[in-house]
Request: fold
Amino acid sequence: MAAQHKQPWLGRPAQILLAAIIALALVRMALAASIGLTDDEAYYRLWALAPAWGYLDHPPMVAWMIAAGRWIAGDTALGIRLCAVFTSLLGPLALWRSAHVLFGPTIARRAVWVVLVMPLMAVGGIIITPDTPSVLFWGLAAWALAELHVSRNANWWLAVGAFAGLGLLSKYTNLFVGAGILLWMVWGAGNSRWLRSWQLWVGGAVAALVGLPVVLWNAQHEWASFAKQFGRAGRGHGWTLAYLAELVGAFVGLASPLIAALAIAGLVQAISASVRERSQAHILLVSGLIPLLAYFLVHALHSRVQANWLAPLYPAFAICAAIAVAAGVGAWPRRIASWALPVGFLSSALLYAHAIHPLRLSEYTKDPSAQMRGWARLAAELDAMRRAHGACWIATSSYATTGQLAYHLRGQAPVAQLDEPLRYVHLPPLDAETRACTALYVELERRHERDLLDAQFASVTDLGVLDRKHAGVPLARYVVHLLAQPRLGNPEADVRALR
Reply:
């Protein structure tokens, strides 16, 4: 059992840290209200228009969060992102308490400072994606396990089950919470005693019951979401180190380089303490990290791992970084630590500044933030073209264009994607009268699908191209067609109205 720490919970260092958490949350709220939506956010907003038990790409929690935010703050950028800001406030507090009961107040405070300045977590405090609830409920499950470990109160299993189940409603990645618990049960001394506790089994039942809606949705839709996400494990391009190097580079950048170095050093120390000293606190920390980390490291040997997929582990990596500083064998950990927070803060601040005003903007850039710019003007130009040609609705063929135009044209014209109907099965179909009317088709030039248009419409007229611009700089080029005489007998022509 971890030693009880008698230092006051809200001493001066803790008060400063709490003020920093609140101040950063306020900054993130201001940014959330002022910068444009990403393509994925605009797409997830479409889910929130009609909250369901599941969706093609992910479980439903992100849609439910967006729906709650829109109910509070309206159909605005802030409303859509409000729950991301809230989790940036709650998540560090859960991490603080978890690290405090396991490793003491100093490591806890250091870990929270680290997580506050990690670039990935800084972005995650504004942009809402399925990682938002995934990281939150992973962290809350870890907190409940820490309380269970220290208190030996079996009732904490009920909280663990509830948070694990909510994680299953957030992202399939959270299945690895269960793998971490299993590893901890096998590895930790005396943990087998919990098998005789009814709370463990009821907690497991709670997790399964809370996560059941995702299974039911998949059962009703030919297991489409499971096939899409779990099928990644079997896809790849042969064994290569290229994707592994890419993953390591992404981690170094998104954690910030000095923090990444401390985190890896701390993880090595935590594993050593777990194996050699049988430290139960370290075993709990490492058990939560290893299953998901090992899976993605192996996955990266044959296929790309997106940088954000490791997001649930970043709070645990922050604890590892704090452990490395506390161990302080030699001067280098403290020297790195003295620069790690300023460098991480500067990196996050530069990201925020770039989101508000691009530091450098070039034509047809691949800058990820470019997707947030220029949509209002493009939507206005398209709506003017639609009216001039007597079109009733806007047609697209990608979820990104669909989501962005549906947000910026809300209340003016319906927007519908001509393919991938399962993405929008939760929404009502486009009514027959509108479907029979002339449509304006717009899509990225590189995603233009002329065969799709010819299959669904007898008349396809080229209207040229439009650029999405910011400050006069073209960011992306879109083709525009006028569509008429729909082939209504086409079974694939199932389009849903998005407003």
